[in-house]
């Protein structure tokens, strides 16, 4: 029987393990080291290597804690430690305005493999608020955007729908959209809508809290609109985005024709929302083992290296496979 939950022990055995404690202290030390280097105006390479070391130390801690939390938002120990990590990383966030301005003054040609980082810092520095305001924004974010974001994740992972007398998590309800019987799909769709309606007010506040903060900060940082910093972070131009959007618009007639043909295959004139994922033709249920073997076999015919990665992902339990209440 395939294990369905992921195995996080390769990262850390647990929150109280010596490995976790050492990693925590290591991150604190590396942030302190970066601060010292910035204060004494160290060489570019020293600062960049210290920055790299901070990110390298933070990544496994963030990955472990968020993986635990996202698999079970009721994991109070993981949530508490995740909040502590956010406070620790606040020390790093306080350095960012100074770090960005420092990098912006450097020559990208001297940055070696970090050239892109220096080039982007030059652009980002044009949109920095005064250092005190940037630090204040980072500090307020813990009880602002990040708190709203956690509320959204916690709430949406705990929402359940009542279907034929059974209380089910939303992720499990959505799986019923693939059911061959329309009556089942329709019931699932209506049950999900009803479940979300019961939580629409806190979810609306969460959305407004996250996006409202971002919009205010974007305006204070001198961006022309909320899209500009998003394009910058994703390293694409406005022109590239417009080209992708135009490609989508040009493809819409094909998608509409597909849905029209699917509706006819289901014996309808128009496709209902609950029929978007309806299966066409006859199928069968697959076990997890069969699905694993199928994926590995087909990937092997395309990219042997990818097949090996997929096989290792199943064997080492890199994935948390099944829906359940409390899972983000």
Automatic annotation (TrEMBL):
Organism: Thermus islandicus
Family matches, as Gene3D superfamilies: 1.10.1370.30
Lineage: Bacteria, Thermotogati, Deinococcota, Deinococci, Thermales
InterPro entries, sorted: OligopepF_N_dom (IPR013647)
SUPFAM superfamilies in alphabetical order: Metalloproteases ('zincins'), catalytic domain
Oligopeptidase F N-terminal domain sequence ranges: 105-158
The protein's name in its UniProt record: Oligoendopeptidase F
